[in-house]
């Protein structure tokens, strides 16, 4: 059940076409918020705060000191509307505070490494409640402490609360003491919230299966998406080089580039992909981009001279401009032979970059198992997906994208239904749910 609907619009009195209706206040608890550039989830919170202004809701954000963010993009911070207030609360990273020789007690990472912002966030939130500045609460995961802050505020204030799960928490299964704690905490959040948002239908179905005593209406789907304003004045595909780009972190659990790189090496050696016209970029790989196993793999496959590894996350606008010039975009969401719980987790998710790829209209390939991503691609009729272990299909998809690039057909008009994932429309879905929980009394 995708919640994309027309919302009751309560105009902003500070805007020319508005009426005198007063904006209601939404308390947003979000660890990731501009200028953070370490998580794509920051865009979901930022765009909701922007678009909700036109839908009758002014957002008051509780977040952390930007010093906690390993990567920052000042341009994102300029997109915060002046009507949106932001409380940046003190917090420390338990990993840094308690680490000895790179290791720290696991218990200080429960519910996450940043739990120290919970007390000041609750104080700040209650201050807004007492002033009558907010009429509803919205929290977004990860980081899980955001939901626990909202849970405390809900219990102290009685205000309606929407808990947004951008990623599964205990969904997908697990084992050991940490999973049992996570499952217990998730249970408290799910039962304490008035509405739980999942970002795929698969994740919503997982909630329904694990919480059968709660009504189905307790869980709604509000997917990730893209903001149309971010996609103006982007370049056309590079005609000199067939650019293959993967933007995102690399690891050997569920974002392993090995299958892709081996396929590309095989195509080059067989002459089915011309070396002189091919370029590969691993964009924002993180520290793994300099690890010996990756560099050795690039050399073994003969890709070292045509591959650029950018370890740092680049500003969001810069990233979009690079993606717009690609002949093939890639998503890594599976690793052959990874533990089953990671596979189950991945099958519930659709990374935000998939929606950006859909809007860009470039050919793209997702290495993943069955689940939410193939379902989405089949629904909209764009993109390709295959298992990371299927070398033959990976090669076929790369060759198909190269042939399209050669003929100048490497860009397609996004399917009409892609517009359903535009963030302004998604914000209407959130406003609809807020208005249902907080009806206006005439």
Q: Provide the CATH superfamily of the largest domain.
A: Glycogen Phosphorylase B
The mean pLDDT is 91
Strand order of the largest sheet: 3-2-1-4-5-6-7
Rg from alpha-carbon coordinates: 22 Å
Percent in helix: 25-40%
Strand composition percent: 5-15%
| Largest sheet descriptor | 7 strands, parallel
Q: Unreliable runs, pLDDT <50, ≥5 residues? A: 4-20
Structure, explained:
The protein has about 450 residues and is of the alpha/beta class. The chain folds into two domains: about 25-225 and about 420-435, Rossmann fold, CATH 3.40.50.2000; about 230-415, Rossmann fold, CATH 3.40.50.2000. Helix content is about 35%, strand content about 15%. It has 15 helices and 13 strands. The protein has helices at about 40-50, 75, 95-100, 120-130, 145-155, 175-190, 200-210, 260-270, 290-300, 315-325, 340-345, 350-360, 370-380, 390-405, 425-435; strands at about 25-30, 55-65, 85-90, 135-140, 160-165, 195-200, 220, 240-245, 280-285, 305-310, 330, 365, 385. A seven-stranded parallel beta sheet has the order 3-2-1-4-5-6-7, with helices on both faces. A six-stranded parallel beta sheet has the order 10-9-8-11-12-13, sandwiched between helices. Helix 5 packs parallel to helix 6. The longest helix is centred in the middle third of the chain and has 17 residues, at about 175-190. The radius of gyration is 22 Å and the shape is globular. The chain starts with about 25 loop residues before the first strand and ends in a 5-residue tail after the last helix.
């Amino acid at each position: 059940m995708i919640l994309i609907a027309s919302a009751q619009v309560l105009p902003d009195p500070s805007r020319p076409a508005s009426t005198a209706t007063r904006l209601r206040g939404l308390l947003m608890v979000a660890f990731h918020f501009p200028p953070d550039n370490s998580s794509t989830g920051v865009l979901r919170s930022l765009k909701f705060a922007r678009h909700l202004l036109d839908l009758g809701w002014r957002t008051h954000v509780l977040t952390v000191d930007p010093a906690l963010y390993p990567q920052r993009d000042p341009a994102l911070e300029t997109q915060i509307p002046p009507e949106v207030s932001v409380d940046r609360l003190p917090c420390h990273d338990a990993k840094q505070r308690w680490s000895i020789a790179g290791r720290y007690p696991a218990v200080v990472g429960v519910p996450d490494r940043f739990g120290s912002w919970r007390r000041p966030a609750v104080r700040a939130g209650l201050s807004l409640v007492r002033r009558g500045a907010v009429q509803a609460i919205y929290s977004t995961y990860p980081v899980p402490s955001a939901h626990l802050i909202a849970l405390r505020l809900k219990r102290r204030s009685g205000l309606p609360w929407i808990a947004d799960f951008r990623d599964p928490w205990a969904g997908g299964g697990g084992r050991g003491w940490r999973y049992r704690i996570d499952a217990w905490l998730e249970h408290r959040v799910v039962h304490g919230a008035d509405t739980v948002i999942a970002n795929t239908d698969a994740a919503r179905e997982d909630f329904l299966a694990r919480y059968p005593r709660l009504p189905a209406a307790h869980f709604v789907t509000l997917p990730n998406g893209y903001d149309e304003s971010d996609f103006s004045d982007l370049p056309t595909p590079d005609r000199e080089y067939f650019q293959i780009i993967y933007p995102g972190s690399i690891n050997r659990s569920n974002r392993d580039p090995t299958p892709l790189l081996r396929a590309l090496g095989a195509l080059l050696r067989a002459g089915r992909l011309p070396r002189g016209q091919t370029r590969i970029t691993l964009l924002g790989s993180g520290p793994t981009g300099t690890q010996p196993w990756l560099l050795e793999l690039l050399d073994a496959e003969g890709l070292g001279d045509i591959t650029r590894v950018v370890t740092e996350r680049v500003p969001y606008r810069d990233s979009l401009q690079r993606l717009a010039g690609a002949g093939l975009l890639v998503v890594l969401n599976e690793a052959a032979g990874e533990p089953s719980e990671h596979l189950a987790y991945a099958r519930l998710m659709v990374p935000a970059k998939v929606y950006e790829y859909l809007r860009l209209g470039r050919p793209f390939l997702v290495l993943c198992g069955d689940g939410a991503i193939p379902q989405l691609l089949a629904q909209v009729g764009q993109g390709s997906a295959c298992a990371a272990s299927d070398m033959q299909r990976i090669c076929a998809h790369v060759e198909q994208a190269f042939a399209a690039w050669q003929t100048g057909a490497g860009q397609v008009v996004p399917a009409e239904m892609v517009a359903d994932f535009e963030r302004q429309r998604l914000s209407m879905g959130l406003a609809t749910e807020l208005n249902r929980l907080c009806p206006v009394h005439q």
